């Protein structure tokens, strides 16, 4: 396969200053006339041919300055339009193409779903609409005329401000939109259909009156209020936290049902997967509300980090994605609970990014080569990309970080930038050399930091020795030490932090690990402390410290850092789970650690008021966490059994406390999605989960009662999820009732599909196959595919069935889907990202399945790339 390499970047030979698009909508033959003002790029090669990108395009005509070109002046193919001898100076190029939006099942470019037209252009979808220099460093001002039938497309939208509407005859009408901000083609959008709208307004800090519009399917308008509220709060927050104002007269969000990802930040016209817009207490869970708020914020924040300042090339994807994730994390931290957000982000990073980073698909935050860019919208680029920025802030401090961001916005507004240009802003304001810090962008792999501590009672010193290693990853066998900010505290015997003194002076809690081994000795340490390491998860690393379980239990009770207080309990539980797995595999009795119940049980204390935080404390490490901790020869069944045994043990010890907490926290009053109320529900469900551990009859009865009496979707879904874990009449009845009640609501059926696909029961695979053949599934809808096949791929015991049937099913489904939607098919295949860590039997079966995919004829670049890289 053809690899695109960062090292081969060169500026475009031509620039396009303006784009006039005339789009005449038709279900199967949409005609697009693109009039482009083109000029040679002074930084490009003189005399070069003009090569425009295309993808499955049908060319109708080409003209230069109004003069049609003969066939021999052009070379036209569906994937390329070449003009060998374009004019040497500026010229106007008019290209007419025809496309079939109904046949577009890839959902890239212009497609039609449920009768409405939508576009998706990131990363390389614009070339499926017209021939273009479809690369992010070609910025143009767009004017778009959309024309369609009044009856089917009363709503006609594109980027920017509406400048004209009118009748086009024949029952058709048109709208002209002009976006004054130069943008790359990937930010272009067009939406047309018969949609309902919810409207509001926002006045920016400088007094611009902005019309806000959320477009949804008719009849769903009553589910758009939360998204609208989140838009307004995001706009205000970006003004206050980053000094960024909105810059058009209208901001629009459109919810669509067929969408490859979560949402898309098209300039002034964000297009969303409807799952991340629509919410009501009866149909959405607390998690849905939190996702909607975060994703609305994320896409809105792109207006500055991504749209006003964009990427020079797709290798720089983390420039906009890592930074925008960082910004949405900060928004959520300010809006909800900062410690809880940090814990959830760390959990998520470990589950998705650490897993990716330790397997065959590992790549740097800024990759250096790709075969298919769609496969690099990954947790590494997004979430690790955000962690790198967070480390930068820890290293240079909040004031310099703010100054660096301001400089970045001032200096690069309207440009297409690189990571080097971004980091240079922080180097400049802080006066620091950040050259070595750049390794975080270049080196893949999660560093491990091994810590040794020593207290010298006579000298009253406490020494910390930190040894870092970065593991080899595909294409990178040898690594250099990273620059790792380790934020520490020394917790004294009374539980209070001790002052930090080094060299006779007050020391910063930020220790910079820059060498293979870094040592620091704290002075005047009156009594043996317990080291609290990597407070607030100050770096995305694995930590192996010489602290004892006693030390961690002490931190779980006393650490002033809420992240590490949570982490300490998790570490003890994780150690016990690893020991339990080893015992199971050696047929030894299960090792018990009764004090885990003390750490976890704190969550259910009657005087606990921070319920959201307590819910995190009550949660055990996941099966994936245990698998990663074990590292190789992983047996998912043993891990599942060990975790179940620990839960049983905890249920026996904490049953009364959990039951009391469940009663105390049970819902009174009307549902509200706010963070405190959601936290209360989360803790209640954690208590119920423990009470129902191992299918305990009393807990199952409570879950059934909660399901039957639920007054909101959070309780209903959580009860269903708990009931689904074990075969029972209550399980079957609740699943049947849910389908009967919500069968006509696809987003609720997604939850129903997901719960069944994620169940750790031997019947799961057969049920998933049956569901796939049933009426609630549609392979053309990515949400359905993710809910059923994606969730199955994340099911630790059933995807990893010892007989290999789980692997075969996902591989076969990916091949079928590849013919319809390669991007989503490639995502489904991501289930194999940790296959090499499995025990030999499963490993061999997973490899067989992957080899079958790789050998299949006619693979898309998307699936071919994942299969080949997964096999290594
Ligand atoms: N920038 C977007 C990423 C994206 C995407 C979205 C929908 C469909 C296909 C897509 N390809 C890339 C979303 C974001 O990160 O904000
Ligand atoms: Zn994004």
UniProtKB/TrEMBL annotation:
Essential cofactor(s): Zn(2+)
Organism of provenance: Methylopila jiangsuensis
Residue ranges annotated for the Aminopeptidase N-like N-terminal domain, each copy included: 20-187
Domain named Peptidase M1 alanyl aminopeptidase Ig-like fold: residues: 445-545
Keywords linked to the UniProt accession: Aminopeptidase, Hydrolase, Metal-binding, Metalloprotease, Protease, Zinc
Biological processes annotated in GO: proteolysis
The EC number(s) this enzyme carries: 3.4.11.2
GO terms assigned for molecular function: alanyl aminopeptidase activity; metallopeptidase activity; zinc ion binding
Protein name per UniProt: Aminopeptidase N
Domain of life: Bacteria
Segments forming domain Peptidase M1 membrane alanine aminopeptidase: 226-438
KW Cell cycle (keyword) present: no
Leading EC class: hydrolase
Family: Belongs to the peptidase M1 family.
